[in-house]
User: Which sequence fits this backbone?
């Protein structure tokens, strides 16, 4: 199968050129999963969160029962109340078990089926059955939820987090998930920004048990080189891989979408240009800068999303304007609202 550089959705190593994630996955496993941490992979749009979750699931499935779901697959009606949420949640867990070849294990599916057989369920009743499922399992159970901030009624999900927190706090007496991994743009403590942006009390999260996730999700020049090595093995351009990796990093600071987008433009849209008669000339500093010019002209999905957030948060817009056009400097303090939001969406770094 012919591979390409991917800028939409999750990456698949059979179809796409990817950086090698082995070191990152091993760090997540050792530092978070094996110790039973509950944590959030919270980064800007198109930062490789979904790809990382998929690769992590694959790396863990031999030693754990991994239940992986995506809240984008749930509809508005699923968050109408606790009962509709419980039914939809149990259905998605059953589907996850089936996709991982575990659908025939009654000790895992039976408690979830009981949720579906009831006309109404409270979150407490849902968790009683989730606890029984975890107790029945011969392997530790890991729950992964992608796109946690794509939900229509956040209050139901906050109540769900509150129940999960209670089970975590009492897991010496109650069997529950060994580890929980959430992924999304909004940090859990900032979910209330999405529910009620005008409220004063924005940070009273019901999930203060989360471990700080400090794994670097950006691509280093070394990471980028692994992707270019795979490409070079297929196309034999004669590029200087290490030099190209450094050029791409210099223009993107390792933002995964931007790295892949530049590579895609070089590979697919610049061939036949009189300034770049062959592939080797494309994979050069001049080729990278030409791809940057194309990227800046836009439009693209990442820029559309970032512009939306600038319009949503006037304080962030004011700070960005002052930095970019007035040369103003700000102290990096994450409890300062525009700094916190800017970091969450990928606009700001501490430098």
Assistant:
């Amino acid at each position: 199968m012919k591979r390409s550089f991917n800028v939409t959705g999750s990456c698949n190593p059979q179809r796409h050129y990817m950086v090698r994630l082995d070191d990152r996955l091993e760090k997540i496993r050792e530092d978070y999963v094996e110790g039973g941490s509950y944590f959030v992979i919270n980064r800007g749009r198109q930062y490789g969160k979904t790809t990382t979750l998929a690769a992590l699931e694959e790396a863990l499935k031999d030693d754990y029962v991994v239940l992986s779901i995506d809240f984008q697959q749930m509809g508005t009606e699923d968050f109408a109340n606790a009962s509709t949420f419980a039914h939809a949640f149990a259905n998605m867990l059953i589907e996850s078990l089936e996709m991982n070849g575990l659908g025939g294990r009654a000790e895992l599916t039976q408690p979830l089926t009981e949720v579906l057989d009831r006309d109404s369920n409270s979150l407490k009743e849902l968790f009683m059955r989730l606890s029984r499922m975890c107790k029945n399992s011969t392997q530790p159970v890991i729950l992964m939820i992608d796109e946690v901030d794509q939900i229509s009624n956040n209050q139901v999900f906050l109540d769900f987090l509150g129940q999960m927190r209670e089970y975590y706090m009492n897991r010496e007496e109650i069997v529950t998930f060994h580890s929980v991994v959430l992924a999304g743009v909004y940090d859990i403590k900032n979910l209330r920004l999405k529910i009620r942006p005008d409220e004063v009390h924005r940070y009273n999260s019901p999930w203060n048990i989360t471990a700080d996730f400090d794994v670097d999700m950006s691509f280093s020049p070394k990471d980028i080189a692994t992707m270019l090595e795979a490409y070079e093995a297929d196309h034999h351009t004669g590029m200087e891989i290490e030099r190209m990796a450094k050029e791409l990093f210099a223009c993107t600071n390792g933002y995964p979408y931007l790295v892949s987008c530049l590579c895609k433009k070089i590979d697919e849209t610049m061939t036949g240009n009189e300034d770049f008669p062959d592939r080797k000339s494309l994979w050069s500093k001049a080729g990278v800068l030409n791809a940057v010019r194309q990227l800046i002209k836009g439009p693209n999905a990442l820029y559309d999303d970032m512009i939306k957030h600038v319009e949503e948060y006037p304080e962030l817009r004011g700070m960005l304007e002052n930095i970019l056009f007035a040369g103003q400097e700000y102290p990096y303090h994450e409890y300062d609202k525009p700094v916190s939001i800017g970091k969450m969406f990928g606009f700001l770094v501490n430098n």
